Automatic annotation (TrEMBL):
Signal peptide: none annotated. InterPro entries: Anhydro_N_Ac-Mur_kinase, ATPase_NBD. Catalyzes the specific phosphorylation of 1,6-anhydro-N-acetylmuramic acid (anhMurNAc) with the simultaneous cleavage of the 1,6-anhydro ring, generating MurNAc-6-P. Is required for the utilization of anhMurNAc either imported from the medium or derived from its own cell wall murein, and thus plays a role in cell wall recycling. It comes from Paraburkholderia acidisoli. The keyword Kinase applies. It comes from the Bacteria. SUPFAM superfamilies: Actin-like ATPase domain (SSF53067). This is Anhydro-N-acetylmuramic acid kinase.
């Protein structure tokens, strides 16, 4: 899985057995070179010669995915013949379900050639074709590993974009995107620190949230939309942020970073209050789980927003390290595709019905 933070690819080797929890055999992270990151960022907005640039970036992604797969085989003491399939999400460069499409670039045919393993790709487009948002797709997986009949739980993914899965004690499942997370935090850190991210949230912790700016950011209509809903860099990008910062030029960069942390925390907490006020715990995964300032801000936003007494912790408490949740989810979706079982939840995405997700590229 390489998400909207676009820093690299997280991979796991996992064994699925009917009636058993998934068993992770190995994990690996392979970073993206700066040139590839720049190419991916440039494709987030319309530009010249997009078709060729997209194809070349897809080839480069496939090469990095192949490196990750080889690392997993080595770490897990596996051969290619031991692996049923690779689930490769690709890199989202456009997500416009309201116009009937979503685009995740990569070259799954090349990956199958390099890895000598079947590849499952293009998970989102079938859900979009059936009238859904194509996102989030992880709630169906969350329900299988994190659900409880004793209490309502919320699983919160803090990747480039934040999203939540509401796992009701009744078995009902809901989920949707909440707004920006690391996409804006990383952008601002790179601009002012020259680093790809704010390590442990130290930059944000050195500043103070600015309420007028926070109010201006929260005025974005997306935050008041009712689910099903999804978003991405098509909306929450550098242009959006720079437009919102007009009139706030006197703020220090650290105060802006602290305010962006507050934006993520408040937007998530509001959705939990609106749709999961009876939850008993919030379990965080994704890169944001390593941001101590963000985790603390989320706890504070819940306390002040009407969901007091609900602890915030990582999915480690449920037996799955935060960095493994997203790649594990897409391994699960690949497994479902191979078995011709549906992978989406219409109650989450708004699709017309359950659909088998993914396209198969044989080795």
């Amino acid at each position: 899985m390489s998400g909207t933070s676009m820093d690299g690819v997280d991979g796991i080797a996992v064994r699925f057995e009917t009636g058993q929890r998934p068993v992770v055999l190995a994990e690996a992270f392979v970073g993206f070179a700066q040139g590839l990151r720049e190419a991916l960022f440039s494709l987030q907005q319309p530009g010249e010669n997009e078709i060729e640039r997209e194809a070349l970036a897809g080839n480069a992604l496939a090469a990095r995915y192949a490196v990750c797969c080889h690392e997993l085989l080595r770490a897990g003491n596996l051969s290619a013949d031991d692996v049923k399939a690779i689930g490769a999400h690709g890199q989202t460069v456009r997500h416009r379900p309201e116009k009937g499409f979503t685009v995740q670039i990569q070259n799954p045919a090349l990956l199958a050639e390099l890895a000598h393993i079947d590849v499952i790709a293009d998970f989102r487009s079938r859900d979009v074709a059936s009238g859904g948002q194509g996102a989030p797709l992880v709630p169906a997986f969350h329900a299988t590993v994190f659900g409880s009949q004793e209490e309502t739980r919320v699983v919160c993914n803090l990747g480039g974009i934040s999203n939540i899965t509401i796992l009701a004690a009744t078995g009902a499942v809901r989920g949707f995107d909440c707004g920006p997370a690391n996409a804006l935090l990383d952008l601002w850190a790179e601009r002012h620190l020259g680093k790809p991210y704010d390590e442990n949230g130290q930059f944000a912790a050195s500043g103070t949230p600015h309420q007028p700016l926070l109010n201006a950011l929260l005025a974005e209509p997306f935050f008041e939309q009712q689910p099903p809903k999804s978003t991405g860099r098509d909306l929450f990008n550098v242009q959006w942020l720079d437009e919102k910062l007009v009139g706030f030029e006197a703020l220090s960069p650290a105060d802006v970073q602290a305010t962006l942390v507050a934006l993520t925390a408040v937007s998530v907490a509001r959705e939990i209050e609106r749709h999961a006020g009876d939850c008993r715990a919030v379990y965080v995964c994704g890169g944001g789980a390593r941001n101590q300032a963000l985790m603390a801000a989320l706890q504070k936003a819940l306390e002040t927003g009407g969901v007091a007494g609900v602890p915030v912790m990582t999915t480690e408490a449920l037996g799955v390290p935060p960095q493994q949740v997203e790649p594990l989810a897409f391994a699960w979706l690949a497994m479902r595709c191979v078995a011709r079982e549906p992978g989406n939840l219409p109650t989450v995405t708004g699709a017309a019905g359950e659909r088998v997700l993914g396209a198969i590229y044989p080795r």
